[in-house]
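Q: What changes when K1U is included in the input?
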Amino acid sequence: MALLPILQYPDERLHRVARPVTAVDDELRQLIKDMAETMYAAPGIGLAATQVDVLLRVIIVDSSPGHDQLMTFINPEIIKRSGVSDFEEGCLSVPGIYEKVPRAERITVRALDAGGQSFDLDADGLLAVCIQHEMDHLDGKVFVDYLSRLKQQRIAEKLRKQRRRTM
Ligand code: K1U
Ligand code: ZN
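A: The predicted holo structure follows.
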């Protein structure tokens, strides 16, 4: 297994659109294992392939209290959504920044699992928020894109300064 580098905002590569997976094979399963190791080590509760510079429609999520219920979504689509919630979100690509984002409160997501089988999952609460956040990454969208231009500029500058200090 391998720890993968996570792209950091405002890296332009975070704004690319990922392409659908055409084969669920051992190479893809290895990517999923590496993404899981990377997410748990960060630590985080979700990760999209885009964040590790792989432009495939794959996300993983584990919002369980014991961090022991990994879920894999390949080519995910939201087929039902209702309600509105605004959880405070974080992002491993935007460290130290937490902001509320409007999301659907409840969703039904359809995807393939790591065995290539199609499944539907009903989600609400943090799980639903996290799935929507990760699916945004696949469309090249970072949660700070929902904020004002001024806030985005301040966040980008703050992160650039932080990085200069730690280099
Ligand atoms: O970078 C990411 O996409 C992962 C992100 C997912 C997320 C968190 C909260 C709301 C929406 C989406 C994170 O995991 S940030 C880190 C985090 O929230 C966390 C880390 C350790 C324990 C609990 C939470
Ligand atoms: Zn994120």
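Observations recorded in class: The first strand starts at residue 46 and ends at 48.
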